[in-house]
Amino acid sequence: MNSPAPDTLEMPVAAATAPRRLSAGLPCGLASGERRFPLTPEGAAMLVERGIDVVMERGAGAPIHYSDEAYARAGVTLASRAETLLCDAVISLAPLAAAEIATMRRGALLMTLAPPVVNGPVRSARALLDRGILTLAMERVEDEGGNRRVADILHEIDGCASLAIASALLTDPVHGKGILLGGVTGIVPCEVTVLGSGMGAVAAAHCALGMGAVVRMFDDDLYSLRQASRVLDHKVIASAMHPHVLEGALKSADVVIATPMADSGFAVTSEQVGMMKARVLVFDLNPCPGTVFPSLPLCDLGETTEREKAAGNGRMCCINVGCQVPRTAAMALSNVLLPLTQRLLGAVAGNSPENALMLQPGIRCAAMTVFSKAVDPTLAGKLGVRCLDPNLFTSLS
Description:
Layout: E1 22-26, H1 41-49, E2 52-57, H2 68-73, E3 77-79, H3 81-84, E4 89-91, H4 98-101, E5 109-112, H5 114-118, H6 122-130, E6 134-137, H7 149-171, E7 191-195, H8 199-210, E8 214-218, H9 222-231, E9 237-239, H10 243-252, E10 255-258, H11 270-275, E11 281-284, E12 298-300, H12 307-310, E13 317-319, H13 326-348, H14 354-359, H15 361-364, E14 367-370, E15 373-374, H16 377-383
Parallel strand pairs: 1-2, 1-4, 2-3, 4-5, 5-6, 7-8, 7-10, 8-9, 10-11, 11-13, 12-13
Antiparallel strand pairs: 6-14, 14-15
Helix pairs in contact: 1-13, 7-8, 7-13
């Protein structure tokens, strides 16, 4: 007996396609002296789990002592530098060359720091406009409470690292003084002078106090100075920046740390530097290092060969302090960049990157270039173009 022919049944057909997964590229910054890296393997794995394809340049994790295999196990795609620059978003703490920017996707998102863009070559800045790149300064992004989490964590790392480095240099029996930062019975402790009273200043002062040093803190922002003094249990000698008092502190200091202040134009004169100790250790934690101590040669701690100079007899100003603790920086940055990256890429999913800027004020204030226009005053002045208010691009209700 023949079996009946099977009936043809109608089956529903999916009318919508699955949304395209967004990609985040992580190029290496070591060639530019940037040893810090934005994500650890654990941090990258969390982005992958949240639906973001992470593409990393091979060997980019080496400065923070993570192998390519560790990132591969986390679900990261290992690729060439050129391939990382083709992603929807590129996360780079180091500056990108103009030729590299020219290879990025038109209208892509670049998450970076402001100094590499503002202080970098004009050609690179123009390339950002030519490619219509949405450039965001990560340290300027604000959360719902107005906090700049990336900036705060970077300042805290720099403050703590400066004291750790200073302690190591002071105890060096050959190149340093061979002394402890904190005193022992019968020995006067070292003196640390901190300029500023923000996050980095508090972190540096806290570490110095923990090591037993005498700490003097100076700032003309008395409200900030008062808050810092309270946080430090009034254990620092806090003062406004009276010239004679400041000169006395600089003259007796073994370590001087300059941190960001409201008065960004403050500078220590060459005469004041001449009064400082011959082997004083000077650290500049400002975004544009070298401006507080213009008469001192710079010692870039991002270069491994430069650190030996910091322990020499001559006075010099140490910069890029955070590059000496790149793994700590990577772990800390992962904590704050994970929600930020997800927030940004989630906002641009299915839309142009500019939509994320238009709808979120906390991101809008961090924009440097958008719609092929410069929206950062310093960058616009450097390029000789008109600076546009990013709020003009929005249609917020």
